[in-house]
Amino acid sequence: ILVRNNLVYNNYAAGITIYQDTGTFEQGSKRVALLGNTVVFRTGYGRACLNVQTTTEKVLAAGNIFVTGNVRGTLQMDTEHLNSVISDCNLHWGSSETELVTRGESRISLGAWRSLSGNDTRSALADPKFSSVDAADYELSSGSPAIDLGMPLDSVRAGLVRLGGCEWLIARLDFFPDEDIRGTWRPVGARPDAGAYE
After folding, report:
1. Residues 27 and 56: beta-carbon distance below 8 Å
2. Residue 181, CB half-sphere, CA atoms under 13 Å: how many?
3. Which of 33, 98, 110 is nearest to 64 (CA)?
4. CA distance linking residue 188 with residue 198, whole number of Å
5. Which one of 10, 28, 71, 128 has the minimum C-beta count within 10 Å?
6. pLDDT, tens digit, for every residue of 71-101?
7. What residue ranges in 63-157 does DSSP mark as E strands?
8. Which is it for the CA torsion 149, 66, 105, 99, positive or negative?
9. Per-residue confidence at 56, pLDDT binned at 50, 70, 90?
10. What pLDDT score does 24 carry?
11. Gap between the Cα atoms of 81 and 59, Å rounded
12. Has residue 25 got a pLDDT over 80?
């Protein structure tokens, strides 16, 4: 599954959810890459921006912007295969740093999530500084912490190789141009920007 360069905004409930609701482990979602997406909740609404459920494995989430409505954290990580999840180079915002990640019934801080999983060590917790939320313009303004925060394509490929069994995803990355939501080539700067807009 390749989910890339999407803008999801003004939503009330879920962001991006990866799971098989009542199925077996064999039926769960596997080999998933989420790259360069922007997910923004309306203030006071919504669940996690990214929800990875129990039977899901082999997920790489990199270079995304996740903004909650301050109801829940940005990530819900209930997978039973946490060692097969790579999450990094993302920008998180909208919830308390102490309740950024939901795991089971617990909400934990970004630091606790890093210690538990080894993930999001190069991610940031900061206001993305969109051009104009009121005008639904989610491009990045100058000085945005999302600029050059994303994961370079060679690192994405290396992560997928490390997860194993992701040959189809790697082939798609090699086939599709490395562009943002408007068709702008990535990266413009030293590294790709996080989110849908380069």
Report:
1. no
2. 19
3. 33
4. 7
5. 10
6. 888 999 988 889 999 999 999 999 888 999 9
7. 65-67, 75-77, 85-88, 91-93, 101-103, 106-108, 124-125, 130-132, 137-140
8. positive
9. confident
10. 65
11. 10
12. no
